[in-house]
Amino acid sequence: MNRVYIKTYGCQMNERDSEAVAAMLRGKGYSVIENEQDADIVLLNTCSVRDQAEQKAIGKAGHLGKRKRKNPNFIIGVMGCMAQNRGEALLDSLPDLDLIIGTQKFHRVPDHLSNMIATMQGQGPRPESIVDLAEELDSQNTIKSHVDDKPQVTAFVSIMQGCNMKCSYCIVPKTRGAERARPMEDIVKEIEELAAKGTREVTLLGQIVNQYGIREFPYVDKKSPFVQLLEKVNAIEGIERIRFTSPHPVGFKQDLIDCYARLPKLCEYLHFPMQSGSDRILKAMRRPYSIERFRRIIDQIREVRPDMYISTDVIVGFPGETEEDFELTRKHFEEIGFDMAYLFKYSVRPDTTAEPLGDPVTKEQKEERNQVLLQILAKRSLQRNESLIGKVEEVLFEGPAKKGEDMFIGRTRGNRVVIVKASTRLIGQIVPVRFNRVTASTLFGELVLEGVESELATVEL
Which has fewest Cβ within 10 Å: 22, 246, 294, 453? Predict the structure, then answer.
């Protein structure tokens, strides 16, 4: 009864939460496995940002329920944002659920499972479902465990929980609670421990990451707490690359922009959510900035780092979005020249201020607008990648590629995926690569070894 499979839906924050739960379970003697069919326990870490994400998790839980009816000792748990959002009401449609664990209770999962298993092994009646959704003081400090049985070349580090923004379409403040920052010294210690075990790149995570500690810690030398944290991480020996996600234009001040010029480990990559190119829609979304302000920040960053790679989020079909509004989004999306983007078709989320507006933009209109942006993105991304053919950049190798003998995957500082013929010895190493072929999403190349390129030499490393 100790084999656990965890399936994660949604964002990098959810990935980090799942990783922490896995590490805590291993610490309690559980075996976290890769094959769902061999598991005694399946935990679904869920997302509520879009209705589609919730429906996927609900469908998966329903499918697992069929397995439970054949094996009553099989345990099904739902964690995360959907669990927090829907709570005990999930049992109405999914009566086979054993655990419903909210976003501030991940650290309770091992104890809840152990208590449930002990009850089952006592040959008593099937224990009642556990629903644990309450807020918990200092829960932001519990997501600090990492997997110890395999090296992490790259790692997510949660620096805060919750969000104080009130975007009209967003359910995150309900599911994640108010902003709560971790102590800076605890974050630095966690990253130092990761570096000592071989981690070379960290991504700092927060719902509004550049708002870290803004109400809890003082400015020092006109630098925000987040900039102070970046400086401390930049000084950690062994860490070679720093990324963060996701920032908000409201907190993107000059002190953060200047970091791209003076902190050598801060990568020239930024995920910067635009959401819409129409000021009227931004206002309806309760996004407190204009598209002019958004673009000015990007211009200032590019003045500091002309080679910057920028990705974004865009929602199409927000209630009231006209063809004129979308044309503004298309225009700014194309002119800014994003290197990557997450494009979302609006879906109504319960208990948001946009919910009463309904969903008046048709599915067909949303899909058409989505495709327009996808085509712009594909063209821009391919052009940017083609500009790299023949050039050499440093690549951090993360592990074997999914396809191809002796093929390995890595990333540039600009967060471009790279596939190269190489050797396991290069995992965790930063190596120069010359690019010779590209697609819109991937760079292909060969290692540069002391000025001599040789595919045969790369395999013999």
Answer: 453
Counting residues of the chain whose pLDDT is more than 90, the rounded percentage is 87
User: What are the start-end ranges of the H helices in 197-290?
Assistant: 225-234, 254-262, 279-284
116 touches 98 (CB < 8 A): yes
What's the confidence (pLDDT) of residue 3? 96
Domains by residue range for the chain, with CATH: 3-132 (3.40.50.12160), 151-267 (3.30.750.210), 275-287+297-387 (3.30.750.200), 392-459 (2.40.50.140)
Cβ neighbors of 137 (< 8 A, separation 6 or more) are none
Beta bridge partners of 310: 270
Q: CA-CA distance, 434 to 388, in Å (whole number)?
A: 9
Respond yes or no on whether the N-terminal peptide bond of residue 246 is cis (omega within 30° of 0).
yes
Quickly list DSSP for 179-237.
Answer: -EEPPHHHHHHHHHHHHHTT--EEEEE-TTGGGTTTTTS--BTTB-HHHHHHHHHHTST
307: which 2 tokens?
Answer: 């080679």
Give the H/E segment covering residue 56.
helix 51-70
Predicted TM-score (pTM) of this structure: 0.91
Two tokens at 253?
Answer: 């001040």
Confidence of residue 450 (pLDDT cuts 50, 70, 90): low
**Element (H or E) spanning 325, and its range?**
helix 323-336
- What sign results for the dihedral spanned by CA atoms 352, 356, 361, 362? positive
For residues 139-159, average pLDDT: 85
Q: How is residue 47 written in tokens?
A: 């997302």
Instruction: For residue 238, give every residue at least 6 positions away whose Cβ sits within 8 Å of its Cβ, in sequence order, or none.
Output: 195, 196, 199, 200
Q: What tens digit of pLDDT does each residue of 363-384 get?
A: 999 999 999 999 999 999 999 9
Give the integer Cα–Cα distance in Å for 26 and 116. Answer: 17
